[in-house]
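Archive transcription. Copying these from loose printouts into the bound notebook so they stop getting lost. Printout 1 of 2:
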Amino acid sequence: MQALTIISEEHRNLWRIVVTLDAVAADIDEGAGVDRPFFGAVFDYIEQFMDGCHHAKEDEYLFPALRRRSPEAEAVIARLQAEHRNGPEVLASLRDQLAASARGELPNAQFTAALRTYTAALKSHIRTEEKDALPLARQVLTAEDWAGIDAAFLDNTDPLFGAEARAEFRELFHRVASLAPDSVGLGGDVVGHLQEPGVAARKGEVMLAVIGLESCYGRIKALKGIDLEVRQGELVALVGANGAGKTTFLRTLSGVQPMSAGRIVFGGEDIGGMRADVRVRRGICQSPEGRQVFGPLAIEDNLRLGAYTQPKGQVDGDLEKIYAMFPILKEKRALPAGTLSGGQQQMLAIGRALMGRPKLLLLDEPSMGLAPLLVEEVFNVIKSLKGEGMTILLVEQNAFSALAIADRGYVLETGTVTISGTGQDLIHNEEVRAAYLGM
């Protein structure tokens, strides 16, 4: 049933877009202008991804199987497919109204009213699929049905939704997030590009091995004998509730928090006794919880500090790579980092860590406190870095999104690893679904 995981993840992405459109419509009603490049980017994403890919997958593979297995599905599927067919026409009408509004031929209030009607319809469509169609599919489709559906959804060579297509859709979403007003997005005037996928590192070689790790705050033992490993080129997710010890674990890996027992082996070397700055030189770089940028310093100075341990000759080139991903940072590079929005600061924190050219990138709650659109943008950036072959250890309360992109995952409860497995195994684990995924 991996296809259902993919569909639900895509629904979450679309829901974030819809919520963002509602927020921007409210701003327009209060006097803000109509940002034509932003709306154009949103409509392009919906047209190419949702109407052109997401709906096509459902219509071609999922819905026919549902019709064969359940007569009662007909009414729901007929309605959903009618909405799929009408989607491009409705979107074209919205584009026309956007152009008329930009020319001053249509009052902004009329455009936002049409926009709200559209977003309400999208929300209703998603709810119907999630509450009616997908639960029914879980009940009535056979293992043979799922084998065929999953094979189609996971086909990396498929021109509609293979690896190349997914990279294009990430770029489309990156464009939306970059142009969205800074109250809900990155607030840029220029669109950057996520880094191109490179040759993925060969998985299997253990880069980080943690054995029996313990750490204490006074008499309180925060970590209680953790065993964990990260292989080269992997993205490993560590999920758990507040207070489980996730941030303490990353701080202990970085050398900021003392360890009281156990071993940390990185690149075949025991680094448990090394200072934090030496670990950075070895290639462990962290984007900390809460961003923790240096507020009074200029944005560019924050980025250059991330490259403090690197040869000076490569810093300017690395800066341009970060600016290519996040043009808003280049636009504002001379301003104090404290003037940035929360989403912009998160991109700065990730960029600062990347300036250290990490062998192992530690990301601590990168989506925390962000607007819905930027939550997905953060995960798009992480997917892009993973596609380059970067080794990543991700700590994240947004368990579903983290596990959906992870090669493997660990569940941490009160300082102890309780469950581990592949990302997909954990998503479908009933204990994990009940405790962390709200399912």
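Printout 2 of 2:
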Amino acid sequence: MALAAIRWMRSSYITQVPLSIPAETSALYRPNELQNSGLVSHDTMTGTFIHPLISFVDKTFVIAEFELRKLRHDFTELITRALQPALWLLIFGQVFARSGMMHTGNIPYLDFIAPGILAQSVLFAIFYGINVIWERDLGIVQKFLVSPTPRTALVLGKGLSAGIRTLSQAIVVYGLSLFLGVRLNWSPLALLNVFVVVVLAATLFSTFSLIIACIVKTRERFMGVGQVLTMPLFFASNAIYPTDIMPAWLKVISHLNPLTYVVDALRTSMLSGSPSTFGLGMDYAVIFLTTIVLVFIGARLYPQLGV
């Protein structure tokens, strides 16, 4: 399904629209005079800006489709990645919900933690960069670097594929939340918001992992750095407890943590009657701008993998 969606989005961007000139215009201008007309110069100027954008989007989807094809040969990744949110919701979530230790206002603790566990699944896209190191060892990175594909399209395409993969974990979290009685918001707009936030946030963290891979260049160092970063990012957010109970210094760090805004956007969209702490506009702005910055940094560092 994911591959079909990618192909459809690519075809929608590369569809050519024939240029039709009205009969009145063709009667007034001879073929050798059309080149100097205002109409043609306007179309040429428009095409100059639009064609590179279409080409960039097309190449980004090509890279994303290439990465998603790997799932045809090994679906175990999707299964193993679905186990962790199940353990957190079924064990950690229910135990703390029964203990009454966490005060989450009018929202039951299981309802509160469900979007946080989905955000945790998104965060684990930070280990996606190890695939880039494997590609470096197999010589695939060198082939990408000699291709005419822009470096930003390479990085963004790989991040987008990680975002689409994470949607399987979103389905698992929704299924478990429904089983546990979490009051979910099933409106189409809310589901669309969750879809967009999951893909964008997974793109963000997978791009961050690609930057780490470009710097460390070895699997052992990468796994060490990834494990060091994952837990602080998770516990310095509002995923499993509200920021109101944090000490002042941790609250400052949580406001600088992009995962905090991912959780806020997911909690606002997933749950019925859950207000946003920062506002959806602020959440989207932080996620989107951080992703753009990381994509450009990753595109700058990506050629170092070929060295």
